[in-house]
Backbone:
């Protein structure tokens, strides 16, 4: 399988609500880069919704398709996490998490009812947030003399590199995400500059 140069994700948090026989399902969809981003959001939602009976979720990170998780959080096995993940995958999204908070309504919904409720609330949350295409980036650290600042920034701008972090003293350091499909060109241009060192991160 050819590695992709682009991936599809969402840009900002969205939420949607679905009700069935008194139970309320509130789905929150949000962009994440790491499993830690996800854990922070889950903690926040648990604080915001302490009376909810379940916080079911699914997420997918990265472009190789191997980094994902789903949880039924006490619901019958396969009725919550899988249907939520199914919605992320049906739109071919990555770097996305969805948490569905459930408030119990007093009536059992049964397995088909639960699957439908979690699937529908996840779908609704994804419908109200813009879906965007982003470049797959590879992180590099660039160190250079302050006098080279303009030359380095020009290359990064020209090839749409993302600046992730920077320290600007007499000697400067920038962490950047270089679009995978332009990597060779960018590295070639940077290595062409005097007193500039380029290292891959991770």
Residues:
């Amino acid at each position: 399988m050819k590695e992709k140069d682009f991936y599809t994700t969402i840009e900002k948090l969205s939420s949607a609500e679905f009700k069935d026989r008194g139970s309320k399902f509130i789905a929150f969809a949000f962009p994440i880069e790491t499993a830690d981003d996800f854990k922070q959001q889950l903690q926040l939602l648990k604080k915001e919704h302490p009376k909810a009976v379940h916080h079911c979720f699914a997420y997918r990170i990265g472009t190789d398709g191997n980094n994902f998780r789903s949880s039924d959080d006490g619901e019958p096995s396969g009725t919550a996490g899988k249907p939520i993940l199914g919605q992320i995958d049906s739109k071919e999204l990555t770097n996305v998490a969805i948490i569905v908070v459930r408030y119990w309504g007093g009536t059992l919904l049964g397995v088909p009812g639960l699957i439908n409720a979690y699937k529908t609330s996840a779908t609704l949350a994804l419908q109200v947030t813009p879906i965007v295409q982003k470049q797959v980036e590879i992180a590099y650290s660039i160190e250079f003399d302050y006098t080279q600042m303009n030359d380095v920034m020009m290359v990064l701008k020209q090839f749409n590199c993302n600046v992730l972090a920077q320290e600007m003293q007499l000697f400067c350091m920038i962490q950047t995400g270089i679009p995978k499909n332009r990597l060779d060109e960018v590295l070639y241009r940077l290595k062409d500059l005097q007193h500039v060192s380029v290292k891959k991160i991770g």
In short: The chain is about 30% helix and 40% strand. The domain at 136-200 is CATH 3.30.70.60 (Alpha-Beta Plaits).
